[in-house]
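Figure 2 data, in text form.
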Amino acid sequence: MTNFKGLINRILPSSSLHGAGERCVIFLQGCNFNCLYCNSSEMISRCVGCGRCIDSCMTGALTIGDSGVEFNSQLCNDCDQCLNVCDKNSFPKALSLTVAEVMAKIMPNRDLITGISVSGGECSLQIEFMTELFAAVKKEGLSTCIETNGSRSYSDFPEFMALCDAVILDVKAFALDEHLKLTGQSNQKVLENLTFLVTKNKLYEVCSVIVPELLENEATVNQVSQIIARLNPQIRYKLIKFCAHGVRQNLLSAVAPSDEYMEKLAAIANQNGLQNVILA
């Protein structure tokens, strides 16, 4: 095991919402998408060390050191004032940890979980760290899963894919122009990954967030469900209701889809042959 480090936003000891069974979830810092409806914008960027957050910290948990902003978790009261003043979409409390240090945080709950999931941000931006982490996790008999925006070609990382048991893939929009408007990035690799991951028997679930005022949801659900049905109709397709909690100012007034509309979208996916459509 090397001293290679990952930048960790936080670690959730146990969750049933991020893959099959009870899982420890590791959220990595950094994302290459800039989604209009993002509710975790503090995960997008790495801290640039500007120090703007220092004065907002009333407990002295944040200080400036040789390497930039330094965080003392023992002094933090989780008031999150540092996030409120940061204008860089960053998280000054992110920790740079080795695989051994992450494993030390996972192992106390070893007997209570079935595996680990790595999310973000966008986890594939730290794929070298994940490869080493998953190798260590597999030695402990735990399963591995990632939640990803699919922006990097997983076919380029065979060593990692051999260690990854399952993938939860976000397909945010099917039309290229809509995806560009929503995220600032192309979805070409996302759709390529959709096919690749099925052929490798790695795709556990596909997710799409439903925002009636912003997206052509029916078109996306129709196109994506047709692709999944053609490849493997038993793969889960989760349709997630937009929620304004924590989102950016420009979408705070956006209305969540009705239950009736969600059922309509589920019917489209089912009619296309999907056998496992989930509304969330």
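Caption note: The domain at 5-43+100-279 is CATH 3.20.20.70 (TIM Barrel).
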